[in-house]
## 1
Amino acid sequence: MKRTPAPARIALALALLALPLAAGAQDFPSRTIRMIVPYAGGGLPDPLTRVIAQSFAATFGQSAIVEQKPGAGGLTAIQELLKAPADGHTLMFVDPSQWAIQPNLRPGAYDPLKDFAPIGIVGRSILYLMVREDLKVANLQEFVALAKSKPGVLSYGTPGNGSLHHLFMETLKAQYGIDIVHVPFKGAVLAFQAFMAGDLGVAVQAILTAEPQMKSGTMRRILAGSSQRSRFVPNVPSLAEAGIEGNFAGDLGYIARGGTPKPVVDKLAAALAKAVQNPDFQKQLENFYADPLFRTPEQFAETIRADLPRYARAIKIAGAKATD
């Protein structure tokens, strides 16, 4: 079946979302829009959200500000969101950690199906299984063979217990019956530094973190943590090709508080679809090697419903626990 090009799909979604809205949304927004980011600066969420905030300000004629609220895997930011009125004036950047991983690690802390009002998904940042060249493995098959020949000898680093990186690797280990030691760090940068220093033979990292080392030939990517190959590194096979269902990629989205009126959600979604077409937005994705991916509020809600049980299984496999 012929697939509609991504720009056409975004334009169609924008047209549908821009249909006349119910009277309840006509006065929205009536004040500054807050956009909460659950991470400190240095990664994609902050600059991406700032571009969207600028686009929102131009679209709505109201200011939009970005606030960083890092901590506890996003729980600090979520608590801030849930304090706000359910009127659409407070939004939050989210990825699978907030809508699927943390709810499973912290049962009862919040319910993403009730406490979140999905606005849209805008992109995808893919993680990669990487090995040092001195391991002398050229592909996943050779890596699995090496791991089986040396159970418990190889080790890999992640930003922490229960991170997307951790669940990706533990699911892979279970799939192939291999024993590789997990070494958690306080952040992806520290994990990668240990990998570069030779303290670890294996890492799970995004493209941007490792690009200089890839070009130098000291490290090799052998598996993408997504169901499809990335356009940035099309020579690296996907999870589907490795026989693993689903994604361990960082889908990037925005939510409002649960209970936000649908006409307001639709108005925000239309503005988000417009922002996605902004050249500055596309540039930010490119700068961080993230793939464009647009999903409507309804599609985003379906993603949350599908991801909750899938990540619950991954957490069980990994034996992950909340640590902060």
Note: The radius of gyration is 20 Å.
## 2
Amino acid sequence: MQPWLEIARARAPDGTELRLDRRGDEWVVRCDGRVLMSTRQHGSEEALALLAFAQAPHAQDVFVGGLGLGFTARAALEKLPREGRLLIAEFTPEIVEWNRQHVGEFARRPLDDPRTRLHVGDAVAHLLRAHELYDALLLDIDNGPSALVHASNEALYGDKGVAACFAALRPGGVLTVWSASGDDGYLMRLERAGFMARAEFAGARAGSGRGVRHVIFVAVRPRAQSSKARTR
């Protein structure tokens, strides 16, 4: 078996070490030694977008939190109309650089699509300023609400972050969130904020019913509800 080769190394803004490794035609990003994303297993990342568009098929303004290897963004672009707009928020500049220089071809270079805009910075800070700007929010940040690698991402999944997501969506809009595992507490926070929420399972490998399965939270903002999310 071929050994893993380290291609690049970076430190996220919160100090966490990230590493881009390659073995043959497979690429992975590791966070403090743990595999965070892989070019071979991205079915659930694509499901994040597909479930959002299944709920909001006419979405035109879409926010993707977390560029990763680009698979969520590409799946969203495949569903987005020609006049649509996709904003990708990525916290770590090196992830953007790695996508442009090394791994962009795997997801057919979503950053080069004319409908794509890029925000290098904090997704929560952006969402706090986004009042009813989006038809869909697709969040693939960290390992989900409970299996956090970056402690700084906790704010996104707490009451404040959930309320920010609710307010950033237009009535009828949808929030989908990738997670390594289920989280009843997060579902309760979504419902408490005013969302109609559920959890779906998605295979890590596209088109395969076997192997690792991840969770996609699907939360819909009702059309007739106030933009002021309820928190306790």
Note: The chain has seven helices and eleven strands.
## 3
Amino acid sequence: MAGVRVSGLSKRYRAGGRGVQALDNVNFEVESGSFVAVVGYSGCGKTTLFRHIAGLERPDSGSAEFFESADRPGGDRSGVGRSSVDQSGLVRPRLGMMFQEPRLLNWLTVRENLLLALRRTTLEDREGAVREALAQVGLGDFGEAYPDQLSGGMAQRAALARALCRRPDLLLMDEPFGALDALTRLQLQAELARIWTTRPMTVLCITHDIGEAVILADRVLVMNAGAIVDDRAIDLPRPRRWGQPAFESLRKELLDIILDNNIN
């Protein structure tokens, strides 16, 4: 499995004639095999952070690098991929990504969408990987369906299957369930928790939903104004349930941290 090490990551944009500090010297590490959520207000820098870790943007300074399980701080730093201000042509093996929208190609079947995601991988049994991923998300009978024949929840399941079929060591998720109705969101949260506990991988999930973060994550990072302002371990036993006193206490605590930092 792969972990993530973010070191001194900074990014500044020009917007509306003024400078915006989207990321401000961000430092943290995601341990291999863990589930980490990042929460905060819209515009706090969550998606910019995601895009830099995914290698979709280049930072002004600092770096985001991946490392193998054996590559711990102080040890061998030969990561499986690296994104930094002085590097290009990056290779990121076994990296899965999921966004708020399914981003499926309407003229391809679900199965063909997944196979397209495997086009540049080294997997030998691609059809087998697709069947396995669709079964994991409960879409085993929908491989030949087209995206416009799916409900919103089913389309997001297909997007999750597309990420899983790569058999990733690291899964990056940017507001994966934010566009869904409340009941479908709860169902997919439970499905993701089940998949993560049965299939070893590292997950980094960006979300605006504090409850979702507490339900899913081992650890929650709170962002404000481009910086990490709190780092909170979530040691509640699994499976977790909304309404449990310990769950609600943690959710309120994190909400207060976000509100206090935004006011200040």
Note: Confidence is low (pLDDT under 50) at residues 71-91.
